[in-house]
Amino acid sequence: MATPHINAKDGAFAETVLMPGDPLRAKYIAETYLENAELVTDVRNMFGYTGFYKGQRVSVMGHGMGIPSCSIYTKELITEYGVKNIIRIGSCGAVRADVKVRDVIIGMGACTDSKVNRMRFKDHDFAAIADFGLLRKAVTAAETLGIPVKVGNLFSADLFYSPDPQMFDVMEKFGILGVEMEAAGIYGVAAEYGANALAICTVSDHIKTGEQTSADERQNTFDDMMKIALDSVLLK
Is 205 assigned a catalytic role? Predict the structure, then answer.
């Protein structure tokens, strides 16, 4: 049923929804990768589409920036539209020297400075981890495609402009592969409501070196990440 944030009809979404932050990236993905894609929701221009990839029905929808925004959309997709699998496809920053711009990272887990999962988990630490089935399929798809990936921990930050830049040194020490703003929240929502979640990110910039991709490239490219996400949907 329709919600305050999604005006799709019942059954409009596939079992698996790929979710970039930017709704225009969702539009680009639907038009570029999917066949017979139809716009199914457009509340606040947060576009969602459903179509087919190599015969498999799949949906793509934006989730906005930050844990509060993505939590609204993922929760409603799961509880109101019966979505089983949420795959975040986005960008992240790097802090380690061995992680390069345009590398693809699969988030096995996600640390965070947000309190949302502590609120869910009675103020205790919650290990925000990906679903192993989705993780394994993504790694298998990457290996089959011959695309190198790094698998490990992400850090989901509440603030894009951090007031504590020394924290990036701590992240590097603890082996964080990418810094983004949503994965830990999505993993928490999926755990709470019985769905599966995974985050696949392309490194758009390096926080330590200053190297970065353009805004257009972030919106319209990152084909390796898309191939991995879409081909993983085909695997049983």
Answer: yes
Q: Which of 230, 235, 226 is nearest to 104 (CA)?
A: 226
**Beta carbons within 8 Å of 94's beta carbon, 6+ residues apart:** 100, 101, 103, 177, 178, 179, 203, 205, 206, 207, 208
**C-alpha dist (Å) from residue 138 to 53, 101, 130:** 16, 20, 11
Cβ atoms of 228 and 198 within 8 Å: the answer is no
CA-CA distance, 236 to 65, in Å (whole number)? 31
**Tokens for 165?**
């830049």
Given a contact cutoff of 8 angstroms between Cβ atoms, the answer to whether 94 and 103 are in contact is yes
> How far is residue 75's CA from residue 78's CA, in Å, rounded to a whole number?
5
Q: How far apart are CA 101 and CA 213, in angstroms?
A: 8
pTM: 0.96
Q: How far apart are CA 35 and CA 14, in angstroms?
A: 14
Exposed, middle or buried: residue 145 (CB in 10 Å: 0-12, 13-18, 19+)?
Answer: middle
Q: Which residues does 226 contact at the CB level (< 8 Å), separation at least 6?
A: 29, 33, 89
Q: Are 112 and 128 in contact (CB under 8 A)?
A: yes
From 205, 216, 223, 231, the catalytic residue:
205
pLDDT tens-digit series, residues 103-142: 999 999 999 999 999 999 999 999 999 999 999 999 999 9
Token pair, residue 84, equals 């089983």
pLDDT digits (tens, 9 = 90+) for 54-74: 999 999 999 999 999 999 999
